[in-house]
Amino acid sequence: MIIKSIDSQLIIKKFALNGYNIHPNAVDLIKKAGIDIDRIVDEVCKRADGCFIITPDDVIRILNEIKNRAETPLPKSKVKESDDKRVRKSESVNVIKDVTGKSTCRGTIEDFINYFNSRYEKISKIFRGRLTQIPIGSVWKVKSEKVDVVGIVGNVKEISDDKAIFELEDKTGKINVTATGKLKEVAMELLGDEIIGVSGSLMGRGIIADRIIFPDVPVNDKKLKKDFRIVFISDTHFGSKTFLKDEWNSFLKWINCEVGDNRVIEIAESVKYLIICGDLVDGIGIYPEQDKEIEILDINQQYEFSAEQLDLIRKDIKIILSPGNHDAVRQAEPQPALPKEFSSLFPKNVKCVGNPCFVDLEGVKVLIYHGRSLDDVVSRIKRLNYSNPHEAMIELLKRRHLSPMYGNRSPIAPENDDYLVIDEVPDILHSGHVHTYGTAFYRGVFVVNSSTWQSQTEFQKKVNLNPQPGNVAVYNPGGDVIRLRFYSG
Ligand code: D5M
Ligand code: FE
Ligand code: ZN
Structural domain of residue 410, as residue ranges? Predict the structure, then answer.
């Protein structure tokens, strides 16, 4: 409909239906433009990306773009009529930390030095007030025999049943630390490259540890009380032959409030945010002979299929989408958000963020991290296993770092700022990657690993990986945690 004389209220209402306020001068500009109003609303909202108010400048920019473009009709939205009319609740997603658009790393030696300095500076700060922190190069100058040092862990060697030795290094020097008895067990769980504190006695050419201290998180006793729920999923692997179509469709029916008893529908109705923690698609060439296991052989088509699936989710849910190692972004972490080429395919309630990403959802701080380092943590710490992925995630919180081990199965891009340090303590830590399910509260932080929508692949069979697909965690901050199971196999 081309509008000649149009009612301002109608324009305001159309923006409100999309969840936006609009400045009165911007309304006037739209009235004067004489262009299909639905088209302007659609284009402006697509680019508004969570801003609070649509300004006249926003409208001028879009009008100029439309004028400069050849007049082609917009494709008809696949969104169901009923969904389009649903008024979006005023959600707020505030990205606090994300590498997207900020990457500086070129992989030079200097980058690596800066990267480790950033890691050391940020984590050693956490020990301030708890330990005296004598520079390692100066320990021999102190008068007392007892010292506290903070450093980055080097080689850990088991000497006997009762004794281990590891190196600790800071900018000023390196020292050997001996751990015996119970501390030997703690030392044997050190991953290497994490930053810890050691309190002990100087002896011979090193320190005999009395205590090994992790930076850890303080008890989070923040009183959250929210009236919405957050749904956590990951590893949909759209495009894989083993993608669980039926289970996914059941999930869609539930989240769209189409199935279940009153209680189940009530839970679905309270959902305001859906977080997808990576491996949206299966990708191409990620593991040996993957081509035999993929249904959609083209990466563009995998993302097109993903966009169709996300478009089936009711539009009043804000979807936050972070990539994983199967997605089409750089493999090294921190990974930036999916490029425009793919993100532009998604409906406008999808917000693409990086991996990791720290977001604030109406005061609820969520740290989203795909979880590649969990493979390293599980293989190094003997008491951990893939059936309880939340326990491996707790080890990351203890170390205040999402990928402590450098140069193993999780590649890291040496950014000047270490985005993988957990400098601010989140209310929620969400990961995926290992394809199993687990939740826990660790010192008040809700820890969740959100399984997968892919059954076991031939490759996973070979590496003895037993996925637990179709598990969904639904969390009401300050309230209940609900586990929904869509897989009965
Ligand atoms: O990872 C799914 C799970 O499969 C995760 O725990 C890692 C594991 N995996 C992936 N590649 C390998 C190799 N090469 N060896 C052993 N285990 C592996 P995803 O990211 O979905 O592929
Ligand atoms: Fe995966
Ligand atoms: Zn993965």
Answer: 229-485
